[in-house]
Amino acid sequence: MPEHADVVIAGARCAGSATAAALARRGVRVIAVDPARFPSTTVSTHLLFASGVAELARTGALERVEKIGAPKLSRAFVGGPGHAAAGGYTPIDGIDYGMCVRRTALDAALVDTARAAGAEVREGHRVVDLLWEGGRAVGVKVSERGGREYEIRANLVVGADGRRSTVARLVGAEQPRLSHANGRACYYAYYEDPREEWRTTAAMWLTGRELGNAFPCDGGLSMVLLMPPAERAADFRGDLEAEFTRTVGLVPGLAQRLEGCTRATKIVSSATHPSYFRTSAGPGWALVGDAGHFKDPVTAQGIRDAVKFGRLLGERVAGVVDDPAALDEATADWERSRDRQCLIMYHWTNLLGRGDGLAYVQIELLRGLTEGPQGVRRILEVYSRIRDPRETLAMGGMVKAVARALRGNPGARLSVLKATGEALREMAGHHDEAKRLLHPAL
Predict the structure, then answer these.
(1) Among candidates 319, 274, 278, which has minimal Cα distance to 297?
(2) 0.85 exceeded by the pTM?
(3) Is 379 exposed, middle or buried (0-12, 13-18, 19+ CB in 10 A)?
(4) What CATH number should be reported for the domain whose range is 186-270?
(5) In what residue span(s) does the FAD-binding domain sit (predicted)?
C-alpha cells in the first residue's frame, strides 16, 4: 500500500530542505527523499553574498551553518591589470558579510534544519517515477538503495533534484523555455591557506580573458576557482593539474595571493553548464532550485536562489495543499514571481559570464564601477540583489569601457568589437525574452 503525505520532495539539498522546512513549520506533512547520505558533497562553487547568508537566516539554518566554522567574509576585493579595489557590504537584515561553506557541511546543516522543523528526510532514496491521475501528478515511485521500491501519494510533488532533474524530465519540462550557453568553464580546488590577512576577504581577479577567485571557507581552507573561456576546456582535458597550475600563473594577482598556500584536494571541473528557465509549475507539481532555474556560477547566485525560492514555495502553498485548484494557482503564482525576480540577474550574469573579447570591456567596467570609496559596495549591492544590475550597464559607462578596452588592447580590437556587438544585440533582445518568459501566452 502506498504511503501518504501532503507534499513529497525529490531532493533534500538547498532547495529541497528549504522547501521542506517552510512547509513543516506550517503543519504540512512533508517527506523529502534524496539518493545521497548526508554529509555528502556535490559540484558547487558555494559562495554566498550577504543576501545568501540572510536567506539562510530566514530559513532557520544560519546558526547551524555558522557552527561549521567558515569565516565571515566581510570584505570583497576586485583586481585587474593596474587596478585593485576593496570594500564591504550594505547590511541586509543586519548581515554585512558573505560566507563560503563547503557543501558537505552546508547541505547537512540544511537537512538538519528541515528535520528540526518537522519534515521527514529519507537518505539513500531516489524518485524514479511519478504517479498520475487524470493528467495530474499525485505522488512518486521511490527506489531505496538496496533495491526496495515503494510509492508515496501526495497532493504536491516538488522536484528539487538539480540540473539533471528526474522530476523535470517526467513532467515534460526538461527542455528550457529560455537558455544561454556558458561562456566560461569552471575548475576549482581547495588550498591550505595560512594567509590570515586574507581570511575575511572574497577576492576576484580578471586578467585578459582569464578569471580567478579565492574564497576562504571552512576547515582552514580556501576555494580557488578558475573560470577560463569555455573553449579552453580542451586545454584542461589534456593534463588537468598542469593546466590548472599554469592558469593560476596567468592571473598574477591570484598567484601572489596563493603564495605560501598548498593545494590540498583534487580539482573539480565543469565545462558545460548552460543557464536556463524551465517551466516550473503544473498540475500537482513544481520545480525548485536548479531543477527549475539555473544561472551561470560566475555571479554565485545559485544557493541563495535555491534557499529563497524553496522557502517561498513552501510558504505560498502551505495553506492550500488540500485544494487542487488553489494549489495549482499558488504554484503558478510562485513561478511567475520567481521569474520576475530572477530574469534581470540572469541576463546580467550571462553578460558577465562571457569569456570572449567582452572580457576586456568587463575589466574596464569594473575599473570604472569600483572607483571611489563606495565603489565595491555598489557592486556588492548588485550581487546581493538590492541594486538593479542595469545601473551598472548604463550606455555611457559601456561606451567609455569599450573605448578604454580598445585603446589598451590593440591586439584584441577585432575580438572586442565583435563581442561588444553581440552583447549589445543580446541586450536589445532582452525585452522580447522577458515577454516570452513572463507572458508565454502572448
Answers:
(1) 274
(2) yes
(3) buried
(4) 3.30.9.100
(5) 5-176
